Hints:
This protein has one helix at residues 2-27; strands at 39-47, 51-58, 64-71, 79-81, 86-90, 96-102. The protein is α+β, with helices and mostly antiparallel strands and 103 residues long.
Amino acid sequence: MRAGFRALAVASGAAILLIAGSGAASADPVEAETAISCVKKIESGTYKIIYPWVRVRNDCAWTYDVKIIWNNGPDSPCNEMSPGETMKNISSPGASYQRVDIC
């Protein structure tokens, strides 16, 4: 009887360790993804030869608050975009389009 109890205690302890181990792994903070794939760049160019611009369109089924992220330039303000809506943003000289983020 004692051997059966001991085996049960060992098995229970192993199960608790497995559950605790998997819980600890899932409890780690995960960095939230802020880029949104259904809001896409549809065209871009330069204004007055030196100012880069980009136009994005919301192809999502929902309205999102989005901003355009630029490398080496200021990001756009946060703007609400309904499905099918487009937005154009002009940045400073030397900037390049990076992505669209939700805000």
